[in-house]
C-alpha cells in the first residue's frame, strides 16, 4: 500500500516548467528529496503537505497528454468541450488519488538509478523506492515537446505497471457499457 502512496505522491504533484534532457536526473532528484522532507516533517499539517508537494511536482507532468492517452481512440470521438471537461476531472482524480494515502508514509527513500533513452524523443528515469524490507521500481516516462527542448512526464510505471495503461483499460471497459457523459459523471463523483 505504501508503494502506491509514495509513487502517487511523487507522480501527481500547471504546466509552467519543463526540464531539458540534461536536467532531468538532477531536477527530479531535487524534487523527490524535497517531497520526502515535506513528508517527514511532523510540524507541517496534512493540508500544507499536500499543497507543498503539488507545488514541487506539478509542473513536471503533462496532464493534457496523460488525459488523451488514458482515453485512447475515444479522445478523437468526443467534442473539444468534453475533452476539456475530461482533462480537468482526470487531472483532479490523479492528484486526489494520493491525498487519502498521505498518512501511510514511513521512512522509505527513493534512489535515482539513471535515465534510459527509449526513443529519440522519449526517455525513462529509473528510480527505486527503498524500504526496510523491500525495493520497488518506479520509472518516470518523459517525452520531448515538439520543437522545444522541454521534457515532461506522460506516464509512470510502478513495479512494471503503467498508470496510464491501467486507466485506459478501466475507461475502455467502462465505455463499453456506458456513455462518455456517464464517465464524466463518474469522475465528477469519485474521490
Secondary-structure map:
Blueprint: H1 2-11, H2 24-40, H3 46-57, H4 63-71, H5 74-77, H6 80-96, E1 109-119, E2 122-130, E3 135-144, E4 151-158, E5 161-162, H7 163-177, H8 180-189
Antiparallel strand pairs: 1-2, 2-3, 3-4, 4-5
Helix pairs in contact: 2-3, 4-6, 4-7, 6-8
Concise overview:
This protein has helices at 2-11, 24-40, 46-57, 63-71, 74-77, 80-96, 163-177, 180-189; strands at 109-119, 122-130, 135-144, 151-158, 161-162. It is of the alpha+beta class and 191 residues long.
Choose one word for the global shape. globular
Number of strands: 5
Number of domains: 1
Distance between the amino and carboxyl termini? 17 Å
In terms of structural class, how would the helical and strand content be classed?
A: alpha+beta
- Number of discrete helical segments: 8
Strand content: 15-25%
Helix content: 40-55%
**Mean of all residue-level pLDDT scores:** 86
Description:
A five-stranded antiparallel sheet has the order 1-2-3-4-5. The chain has one domain: Nuclear Transport Factor 2, Chain: A (Roll), CATH 3.10.450.710. Helix 4 crosses helix 6. By secondary structure, the chain is an alpha+beta fold. Helix content is 49%, strand content 21%.
Main features:
alpha+beta, 21% strand
